[in-house]
Amino acid sequence: MERVREHWVNVVLIVEQVNLSVAIIPMSHQYGWNSSTAGLVQSSFFWGYALSQLPGGWLAKLIGGRTVLKVGVLVWSLSTAVIPAVAGFMPGLVLSRILVGIGEGVSPSAATDLIARTIPIQERSRAVAVVFGGLSFGSVLGYLFAPPIIQNLGWESVFYIFGLLGVIWCIGFESIKELQSSDNEDTLNLEQTSTGSNGIISSPGSLKSSDTSLEEMKDSIKDVPWREFFKSKAVWAMIYAHFCGSWGHYTCLSWLPTFFSEELDLNLTEAAWVSILPPLGSMVITSIAAPFADNLISTGVDTTKVRKICQTIAFLSPAAFMMLSSVDLGLPPWVIVAFLTSGLALSSFALAGLYCTHQDISREYASILLGITNTVGAVPGIVGVALTGYLVDTTHSWSISLFAPSIFFYLTGTVVWLTFASSEPQDFNKSASESLTESNQ
User: Fold this and answer.
1) Digit-coded pLDDT (tens) for 49-93
2) Which of 19, 195, 260, 388 is least buried, going by the fewest C-beta atoms within 10 A?
3) In whole angstroms, what is the distance from residue 386 CA to residue 108 CA?
4) In terms of domain of life, where is this protein from (predicted)?
5) Are the C-beta atoms of 321 and 339 separated by less than 8 Å?
């Protein structure tokens, strides 16, 4: 049940991002935006997304991923719904996008916290695939429904509709939670009656207390071994790999519909339909990559080796196909679409690579570690998306603007990952204690 709920919140989350990448085309026409301005609007989401990563990871560890997730969804759903009202006022539009980013930014850490605490290592790839696979499914839904909604009801309608979907998810989430709480109470009462115990019985699925005192919250920040995180080569490998993967993912998510529209001369609906192919391919690849990784680990293959294999596939595949797409070989449009679809689909192997290593090396701090790497991973959304728009305006070359930077980061990310990545569990608290003992001697 937990994995299903996390899956669907990621579906709604990515649908909202896809909406803007499609709606930005008619919005740019209406308000007279050039590519640089459109890039600024799209990148402002990632300002809030970056700001909320570490707080989201810390809060997930402190009060539980479920509570953080629910609040985050509510914030970005309401912020999405007000976008049409402020679209003509750039500061208001940018602020609303930042709030959307803040609300969405806590979701990955909350999901990681739940996976790390409940899923054994030999099933972890599939759990991550189910939860984060919702991103690909959400992309498909967004590209499928956004164009007809925009063409029939106006671009404003997609923000109203999908903002409402987020609110509905929150209501459903709360209803399921209440049902589960009722079931837990019945179970506990039966146990107490049969044993005659007057003690307090806590359910394994119970939530952490939400009335944590301010003093406890301050202490919890101090207790996090921040210094030990950044002494770890494995953590730095995750940080850089997350940055590299995000550069390719976010720039393509934001600009592929425009690329297909302008470079391949497709209309809005055709560009959106073609943009469905990469996430559709990702869904297929994810269903292969996750069991592939889990089966290797179950048969005794070293976990680090499995994560390195999967992440290498995730980086080298899109790099190779982007190289073929960026070189003028006189290829027909459908071949370029096939190349990009194949490369971006194979990048989903990262769900069995990078995205599992946070839980592998530390169940206790998995959400905070993802908060750290995702903060850095949001930088390409801020810099890369805006920079791509600026380069398109100045160079008029999609090869230079969109593909070349992604290829560079995919290749360097592969080198760093193969050299330093590790899935060996690390006791950061023990390392911190040893460092403190040495300093006191």
Assistant:
1) 888 877 877 777 677 667 777 788 888 889 889 999 999 899 999
2) 195
3) 23
4) Eukaryota
5) yes
Residue 208: CB atoms within 10 Å:
13
Write down the pLDDT at residue 208: 45
pLDDT at res. 406: 96
Q: Is the pLDDT at 18 greater than 90, yes or no?
A: no
Alpha carbon separation from 378 to 46, 207, 240 (Å, rounded): 6, 29, 12
How many residues belong to the chain? 441
Phi, psi angle pair for 314, to nearest 5°: -65, -30
Locate 171 and state its tokens. 């209501």
- State the DSSP code for 367: H
- Domain parsing of the chain, residue ranges: 2-188+226-432
- d(Cα 250, Cα 104) in Å, to the nearest integer? 14
Residues in contact with 38: Cβ distance below 8 Å, sequence separation at least 6, in sequence order: 24, 27, 28, 258, 389
Q: Are 359 and 116 in contact, with CB atoms under 8 Å apart?
A: yes
Report the amino acid identity of residue 70. Answer: K
**Residue 323 exposed, middle or buried by CB count within 10 Å (0-12, 13-18, 19+):** middle
Q: How far apart are CA 329 and CA 109, in angstroms?
A: 43
What Å distances lie between residue 97 and 123, 299, 333, CA to CA?
A: 36, 46, 33
Provide CB contacts within 8 A for 422, sequence distance 6+.
233, 234, 237, 304, 357, 361
For the whole model, what pTM was predicted? Answer: 0.71
Q: How many CB atoms lie within 10 A of CB 45?
A: 30
pLDDT at 151: 84
**Which residues, other chains included, contact 99 with Cβ-Cβ below 8 Å and sequence gap of 6+?**
48, 75, 76, 79
- For domain 2-188+226-432, give the fold: Growth Hormone; Chain: A; (1.20.1250)
What is the tens place of the pLDDT at every residue in 228-251? Answer: 999 999 999 999 999 999 999 889
